[in-house]
Design brief:
The protein contains six helices and no strands. By secondary structure, it is mostly helical. The N and C termini lie far apart (43 Å).
Length: 104
């Protein structure tokens, strides 16, 4: 995980694509059948796996086609709630307020 902190967005995209490719291969699926199951073109799957740009929709479709929707929970886990914070708050925050600008 720590090596990911120092990667550029392009490098992260390539790492994610490589992991998806390994997951597909571990499930013994070829690109054509995976693309058909996901409802995307083979080219879109190749782009995703090579890290050459893709859409969130393509990523989600591929995760679903690979039966790996828990990958979404890993990418963006549901934030935990501290019970003590619930006691201190009167209502659930809807947005974050900006800090007041310092006066000279």
């Amino acid at each position: 995980m720590s090596e990911l902190l120092f990667q550029t967005p392009n490098e992260l995209q390539a790492s994610l694509g490589e992991r998806l490719k390994r997951l597909r291969l571990n499930r013994n699926l070829d690109q054509k059948s995976t693309a058909e199951k996901a409802g995307i073109s083979e080219r879109a799957l190749r782009n995703l796996e090579s890290g050459h740009g893709s859409t969130v929709e393509t990523l989600l479709r591929v995760l679903k086609a690979l039966d790996y929707l828990q990958g979404i929970d890993m990418l963006a886990p549901e934030p935990g709630v501290n019970p003590l914070d619930l006691l201190r708050q009167t209502k659930v925050p809807q947005r974050v307020r900006r800090a007041a600008a310092a006066k000279e």
